[in-house]
From TrEMBL, chains A, B, C, D:
Gene it is expressed from: purU
Gene3D superfamilies (UniProt xref): 3.30.70.260, Formyl transferase, N-terminal domain
Annotated family: Belongs to the PurU family.
Name of the protein in its database record: Formyltetrahydrofolate deformylase
Molecular-function annotations in GO: formyltetrahydrofolate deformylase activity
Upper taxonomic lineage: Bacteria, Bacillati, Actinomycetota, Actinomycetes, Micrococcales
First-level EC class: hydrolase
Organism, as annotated: Garicola koreensis
PANTHER family: FORMYLTETRAHYDROFOLATE DEFORMYLASE, FORMYLTETRAHYDROFOLATE DEFORMYLASE 2, MITOCHONDRIAL
Domain ACT: 11-93
Reactions accelerated catalytically: (6R)-10-formyltetrahydrofolate + H2O = (6S)-5,6,7,8-tetrahydrofolate + formate + H(+)
């Protein structure tokens, strides 16, 4: 991890139809450029007719200055040959992230605190909230807090304001228990992935009030799910999940308290992995290297 | 645990509307009878208007001989006063259990093996299967194996045979990956609780093929659920659940293998707890002491 | 939990040689006083010659005003008869807790944050630190921060200052990654239990540098342990432990980061349970109800 | 997993000082031979002066017939250039494994059962035991059971018999709760790795009676550890560990029962990973890909 935050560390993430020689071609090219592979993960959904995914982290002296050259070589030598989708990132340049919250503080504060202690390789662009409650908490971390009220009548205007703040300004939007549904229009225009933390072990208990539903159903474990947001509510690709054991003696308030611990842990892992380019979307699922 | 398998150990399980003085009345009566409380667990769904549950394990010299007397005293002194449902069991008399299986062996063998080593306080009445495949495995444990084929045309006859074998003969029926749906009629007539192991973390992935569904949805944990069987498929009160971490790299066959370990662990815990009178049904949920 | 924070809720914790009729005598007395038992947990180390422990939570109208009377009755009617050690607490009066910290913030901030959101039934008397680094963080929670520098030459003076601040003022001292060893003299004089979080799965890796030791030994799980402090370093009764999975690829810095999450979770549970009178010391171990 | 059991699948495991171009050289060579990489894992203990490890699974048509050629090319083109230790295995040829047991059945039966259902890619050469108790259980799986009694006086003769049975005949020896200590002499001569399951979360509770020690120390989790056996008892490289939560109410017999579940799960994972060439020894630790 630390290694990846030094200068001259590149991450190349690729996806293409599985075929012979991809690993060799990629590692060859990196060696030819003078790079040294630090870690390499790959996965294929099947040897024949499958989809191939690879994340390669490599040290390349002078990366920042040579970036255009490297991208050109990847495009001309690999991308066309293998019908490859690819992304090259400079590990020393953290992703810019906007955090959305409402009134609940546990996920937001945990992300801010982990970021402050250097555990999350990101830069926090701002916190946007439809409520003013958490402003002081956020400012204490030296992060800009923007209050954009949302109600039934101004939803479109609020999203326009969101887009003005975010578009071409952030690499990721994280909904840290933001209690508003984003419109398909917003999702299309924001041009950055949007991640959400859902307070249940999806696909169980979709929609609102999952802890009450969990109590009613009498489950013995409750959980949380970090996923990318799509137009289909609670149906987006799952990045990370976890659960905690509960008992008949725990009421909904207690489930909510236990759940908060799972939510903040799950969301922080998902954000970290995304910011390290470990998560690749594949249809309605994810590859997490 | 061991303590409870000695002679003269009684278990009293009660349920009644919550009200003042229940614990005192029960423990008083036990003291008056000359008994000594070993463990006592209680739970109330709410102080006012709630339901109260208690499991009391106590040592009572001469229990077997005094049983009618004790039951009479409980009925006359406690049951009417507190509108109480209650059950008294002699811990030295293990429950008689019938195991149902089909072709899959992991849950069945694990129960047989745990029983052989003395970990499950039950007596196995027989194993009933709609397939002959596991006969030899079962007989090796000294347990009777009864093959009752089931097909579209003989389902009623098969269930009649089941009832003939089970009625007034067993205290519990355990479906150890039995791949047939029991009719409401059977459930009503069998006069013993029926427990099932479902190969998913309910209420996620109800119905058939849960591991395929889990793969398609891209969950990061898979699980299993032991529950009492009701007329509503996969909706009965949950007794125990657990999960195991999986990754994008695990195919359905691998999920099935991992899941088998969770299934057998969850089912064996549920069976053990039931046989120790730790599980109380409460509407669509359970209390597990 | 919530229930226990209402007025008129008492907790009676007892320990005595196991013998007939304790549960009945206690519940009888509570019923006689007009109380209603909410939860009751008990444990015996053995039916014959064992030690018996019980925690009883009960509702008693007018508890605060009747406290002296109740204590008198317990002493005269129960304590002498059963050679009982006992403690009665009013659940509405949270314990006063002093937190000790050094430079590391994760355990301290987690306790402060959980306390702010109402999850920890305690009152924070103050934070005492041998370093000034965390002062601002602590004050933001409205908690007094007291800097008591400790070095080789002033250790006795520092502990005298600690005692002046704590004696007869707090019910519990929590070492939230406080990096100084307390003297036997301090432990004897402080007259309050002292709890510590050790950053390993004790008894593995006692002493300093546990994450380095864990790396060197190549363990596949790392953990943390909350325990009461005794004169024997890292040997006090364990209250709570947990672990997290790691791999060969995690360096010591990464183990330390993972470990921090386990440490703060384990310590917060231990503090919560202690403040709810759930933890009873028994020789070098604990009973946790 | 399944993929790796088809014909023409090779596994190449290498270890060498970390340096530029290893991944490229290996993948190049595989491509040149006409192979296709299926999975590739690598790890370096440090970019400068570190040790590099890689496991590469690749499809190579005609592997069995071309094996000598492939080994020659690896030796001449890779091994000398990178000062590499390496091993090439044909995934379709399962490792030959000898299982050692005494009287306790849970680890042994679990391995036999998992093997029968096709979950463990190995061939069981025989079961060797110093007690006859488990003979019938073993034979039922169609596996040869060899009783080699061991007592104080015949230990050398017993080990000579072990060596006669094992030498040049097996690829792995698994001690499935074998209750005898193997001599350094045996370990040196057997010329196959020896794996043991220790019934504690090492390095806690080394030596005999770990569950009693765990009870005495009052730990809240107990565990098990699979490790390679070295001359230093309980000090060999750890392959896998896991834990389970226990409470003050569990006596040593109950800890032993809970522990048995952890032991068999941990050992079966370690055996599986070893047989898939996923485990590389590195000093006193392991890399597990």
């Amino acid at each position: 991890m630390n290694t990846e935050q030094r200068p001259d560390i590149a991450r190349l993430v690729i996806a293409c139809p599985d075929q012979h020689g991809i690993v060799a071609a990629v590692s060859d090219l990196i060696a030819e450029l003078g790079g040294n592979i630090i870690t390499l993960d790959q996965y294929s959904t099947g040897v024949e007719g499958g989809q191939f995914f690879q994340r390669t982290v490599f040290h390349l002296p002078g990366l920042a200055a040579r970036r255009t050259e490297v991208e050109h070589v990847i495009e001309s030598r690999l991308a066309s040959r293998f019908s490859m989708q690819w992304q090259l990132t400079d590990a020393s340049r953290p992703k810019r992230v906007a955090l959305f919250a409402s009134k609940t503080d546990h996920c937001l504060l945990d992300l801010l605190w982990r970021h402050r202690r250097g555990d999350l390789p990101m830069q926090i662009a701002c916190v946007i909230s439809n409520h003013p409650d958490l402003e002081e908490d956020v400012r204490r971390f030296g992060v800009e807090f923007i209050h954009v009220p949302v109600d039934r009548d101004n939803k479109a205007a609020a999203e326009a304001e969101h887009l003005r703040l975010l578009k071409d300004n952030v690499d990721l939007v994280v909904l840290a228990r933001y209690m508003q549904i984003l419109s398909p229009d917003f999702l299309e225009q924001v041009r950055a992935p949007v991640m959400n933390i859902h307070h249940s072990f999806l696909p169980a208990f979709v929609g609102a009030g999952p802890y009450q539903k969990a109590k009613d159903r009498g489950v013995k474990l409750i959980g949380a799910t970090a996923h990318y947001v799509t137009e289909d509510l609670d149906e987006g690709p799952i990045i990370e999940q976890d659960v905690i054991r509960v008992s008949h003696a725990d009421d909904v308030a207690q489930l909510t308290r236990y759940g908060a611990d799972v939510e903040r842990a799950v969301l922080s892992r998902a954000v970290k992995w995304h910011c390290e380019d470990r998560v690749i979307r594949h249809g309605s699922t994810t590859i997490v290297f």
